Amino acid sequence: MIKRPWTVLRRMILLGVTGIMVNTAIAKSLLEGVEAGTPIDVYLITGQSNTDGRADFKMLPQVQQQSLRKQPDVLFYHGATEPRRDASANQWIALQPGSGTNFEINHTPDTRQLNFGPEVGLGQALLERQSPGRIAILKATQGGTSLAVDWAPGKGRIWKMFRRTVDRGLKSLGDAGYQPRIVGMIWAQGEKDSKDPQMAQDYEAHLTEFFTAVRSVYGEMLPILVTSINVFDAADQKIFDAQQAVTANDPYAVFVSTDDLTFKDGVHYDAASQLVLGARCAAVLGGDSMKQVTIKPTAWTSQARRMLSTDEGQLARLTLGNSDNLIEMAPVNLPGHGAGDCNHFGWPIATMVDQTLVVMHRRIPGHNRVGAGGPDESMSYGNVLRSDDGGKSWSQPYDLRDCMKPEDRNRGGIVPLSHRSKFDLDNHSPLGYKVHLHAIGTMRDGAVMAINNHGVFRSEDKGRTWKHFSTALRDDTFPHMIVNLGPRIFDDPKMGIVAFGNWTGTWADKKLYKQLVVLQSPDDGESWKATEYPVKVAQYEPAALFYDDEYLFVTRDQSNINNKPMHKQMSWQQGQSPQVSDTNMVAPRLIDTVDLSLNPITGRFEVLRSERDKMELWIWSLAPEDWGTGKWRRECRLFKRDGKFYQNADGFHPAGAVIDAVRGVQHIFIYCGHPNGPAGVFRITRSLDTPRLAAYLNAQPVK
User: Fold this and answer.
1) What does the DSSP 8-state code read for residue 331?
2) Do 396 and 183 touch, CB atoms closer than 8 A?
3) Closest to 436 in 3D by CA, of 421, 453, 422
4) Would 53 disulfide with which of 20, 197, 228, 505, CB 3.0-4.6 Å?
């Protein structure tokens, strides 16, 4: 029975109790010959006896037993050791029954049984949707355990077993060459807590705390399926109600009804129901659309409202319904409550391949170091999300560091080379990748290239999996200063892969330099050469556009950032000196990196520009024939945030926006929040009919 729709992976789909993972030693033959960086999706199963598994495999028809006795294309790992299981614990094996406990309801041994949970049906159904050898099920379960005591984060006996099991299982996959990604978690528990009045009363708070703790370790937007407790009395009803309440308020949790499943003993699911349950879980977690995180644009959470710090009238205007489909604003990735010090998500840039959007952003302690927290292992300059539906829903964030070799991931320290002067002052190591900020782009063959503080990355499946070029732009292979990048990467038929930037000194001595730096790779990102061209101004983070056989730029002039700094224009052709000119885009202070594009509807150049002195985001435009004048037209304001920049407000970095000519829109990605965190990533999708958009927005009252 379907209880309610879900928003984020949250479609109240009929699912049953969580399933058990068949553990088995990862036979060496299963892990041999794995190419480094091979992606594998990991599914977690957690909870008490109905995920631990009491179903008797031998009660299935013989034909099913033959097909399910061993599934070599699905890896399986479980951590239960007491009582003994038929499937070996704490090692990877081919998926098979036997990780459940061969106890009946009265806990008397029954050696005739080969017990299992939903893992067997889950693996079978996932194989119908995904590539063989790319699925891993990791199970940490124990019957008769309470959330209040045994699963209590940080101190509970089973919580520690859960962490140990998952971490060891993931490490084993990584050591074998896999690139594991946790897709989601199944949770089935509550019977034990229902027996204690105080535990039942506190179950909602305990479950919320538990989910926060799990996500702080394994992903801030980790989807969690909660299978409902079976209600036999008023105490069970309290747990049931708490499960519904938690999932109703958690955008990444799904309540799953189990009231159609049948039992072997009045409490535990029988073999047929465990297979049904596993298949239902696969239907939710196994398909690409179900892996998406869907957030209703108009359903602004209190957390998002705090980060945006704007009035309700503006939020109402930025909806498709109120704007006649001209503009929409929605969250993309926000830090969860357990994000820790690295809760500043910022500087998003994006590209599009076919109709898939790929967004990359940072996760750091803050923009303003004063008052921000410290770095930790979650600090990353390459969090990537994907959307196949125009930004309405997003995949779980993927940390590009997870495809790096261990020795490359923390080369010189957990803080990358260019940011040690800000977040790791006592670290004087010169080791690392000589890159600051980042760039992204789609190549002619459909690959996505990304460069950030961790180096160079390439994806050949629309941003789903990635390869890291270990030596590219590294301290021992790139005999130059640190390069500060503009937001875009190009695939030039004559020059190869190209990115643009500026020198920013060394890790210990940052300075302003007056050159345009051109990075070129002739071998799809494996190696790079740098060429510099004098430009007479301290240009910074150039936003580039290839137009009429030359590259055009709008770039920051950092010569005097606190006294009416200007965005400059540049034009450049290979082998020639860049031409630099002034614009009328001047600010009192503190200019930001812009986005530069050619609007296919209006035929005009357009710039997305933060005006940080007022915390506003604007569109400017210019006819191509007027490029030489530098006189841009201010079209309309897209967004305004309250507060003072770098004091109690931060944003927007609209660089790296995406033109979607098929849908007739531009997808703009910004960050917004506090300079010390939290800050989150948001999407503004607006019509390319700029005159209509401007007429709508300019008719609104402006604060």
Assistant:
1) E
2) yes
3) 453
4) 20
CB 480 within 8 A of CB 486: no
Block means of pLDDT (10 residues each) for the chain, 703 residues, are: 33 30 44 76 92 86 86 88 72 86 56 79 84 85 94 95 94 87 91 95 96 88 87 92 90 83 87 88 61 44 89 89 92 82 97 97 96 92 94 89 92 96 94 98 98 98 95 97 98 97 85 95 97 96 98 94 91 96 93 97 98 97 98 98 96 98 96 96 98 93 58
Q: Against a cut of 0.85, is the pTM above it? A: no
pLDDT of residue 650: 97
User: Comparing C-alpha atoms, which of 260, 255, 223, 261 is closest to residue 240?
Assistant: 255
Look at strands 658-660 and 650-652 and give their pairing. Answer: unpaired
CA pair distance 450, 465, nearest whole angstrom? 12
* Helix pair 271-285, 119-127: axis angle to 10 deg: 50
Structural domains in the chain plus CATH codes: 28-291 (3.40.50.1110), 294-698 (2.120.10.10)
The secondary structure of residue 322, as a DSSP letter, is T
What is each CA distance from 160 to 84, 143, 570, in whole angstroms? 19, 15, 58
Spatial CB neighbours of 445, under 8 Å, sequence gap ≥ 6: 491
Q: Which segments within 334-395 are labelled E, that is strand?
A: 344-353, 356-364, 380-387, 393-394
- CA dist 118 and 122 (Å) reads 6
The pLDDT score that the predictor gives to residue 81 is 63
Residue 131, phi then psi, degrees to nearest 5: -70, 140
The half-sphere exposure of 605 on its side-chain side, counting CA atoms within 13 A, is 26
* The pair of three-digit structure tokens given for residue 688, joined into one six-digit string: 């390319």
Token reading at 393? 């829903």
> What is the amino acid identity at position 334?
L
Phi-psi region of 541 (alpha: psi -120 to 50; beta: other; left: phi over 0): left
- Is-contact 526 516, C-beta < 8 A? no
The pLDDT assigned to 131 comes to 66
